[in-house]
Amino acid sequence: MKRFFLLFASALFSFTISSQDIQLPSPQKTGGKPLMETLNSRQSSREYSNKNLPQQILSNLLWAAYGFNRADKRVVPSANNKQEFEIYVVLKSGIYLYETKINTLKLKSKGDYRKNTGKQDFVGIAPLNLIYVADISKASGRELAFADCGFISQNVYLFCASEGLNTVARGYFDKQELHKLLNLSDKQEIILTQTVGYGK
Predict the structure, then answer these.
(1) CB-based burial of residue 68 (10 Å sphere; 0-12 exposed, 13-18 middle, 19+ buried)?
(2) How far apart are the first and last CA of the chain?
(3) Contact yes or no for 149/191 (Cβ under 8 A)
(4) How much is the pLDDT for 6?
(5) Contact of 31 with 39, CB cutoff 8 Å
(6) Sign of torsion over alpha carbons 14, 30, 155, 47
(7) Which residues are CB-contacts of 54 (< 8 A; sequence separation ≥ 6)?
(8) Residues 67-85: pLDDT tens digits?
(9) pLDDT the model gives residue 18
(10) Could you give the C-alpha distances from 134 to 14, 21, 43, 151, 193, in angstroms and in order?
(11) pLDDT digits (tens, 9 = 90+) for 2-37
């Protein structure tokens, strides 16, 4: 009976994760540079190669951005613990929603939409663009949602500085176009985008 249940649970889990979704490896939560060295290396960069990020690096980065480090608490603070953000991950293969608890990228739109995430040329070259979306109806306030987004973005900056990756937070994008592309509700707002990749 136990064996049957395990087989059924495994089949159900496989069914819920589409073949076009990306099941990421478990994030590695040790290693990296010491904090003071990482802070000393933190910078914005607008030069990228098109080299893809390994899935392990992507998993580690997303956990550093918005993963859980306790049962119901994340690696970043949020006002009144509202956890009002979703992170959309734009790769060459498509647009994905980061499902933190199952460490999976859920496919939302297949295709290369990187250039749609901003108005600078490098966004279409870099392998990864992140889109930070807040549910304003869930947040403690719009201003506080902006502050919460800053924590996420800074964690990405620090991860990139530790791993030798380039990154830059961006506010120069067509908000209406992206809102439509992501099929967001009127309660959701794109607060910031961020590009990540290897330098040239």
Answers:
(1) middle
(2) 56
(3) yes
(4) 42
(5) no
(6) negative
(7) none
(8) 999 999 999 999 999 999 9
(9) 53
(10) 29, 22, 25, 13, 12
(11) 454 444 444 444 444 456 999 999 999 999 999 999
Beta bridge partners of 109: 95
User: Among all chains, which residue has been given the structure tokens 């991860």?
Assistant: 159
Burial of 174 (0-12, 13-18, 19+ CB in 10 A): middle
- Cα(165)–Cα(64) distance, integer angstroms: 14
Beginning with the edge strand found earlier in the chain, give each strand of the sheet holding 22-23 in spatial order.
22-23, 104-110, 94-99, 85-91, 128-135, 188-197, 166-170
Q: What is the DSSP letter of 51?
A: P
Residue 191 has pLDDT above 60, yes or no: yes
Query: Can you read off the two tokens belonging to residue 70?
Result: 């306790």
C-alpha closest to that of 41 among 165, 163, 161: 161
Q: Could you give the CA distance from residue 67 to residue 22 in angstroms, rounded to a whole number?
A: 16
Helices (H), the chain: 2-16, 35-41, 55-66, 142-163, 175-181
Reported pTM: 0.90
CB 23 within 8 A of CB 99: no
Cβ neighbours of 55 (radius 10 Å): 13
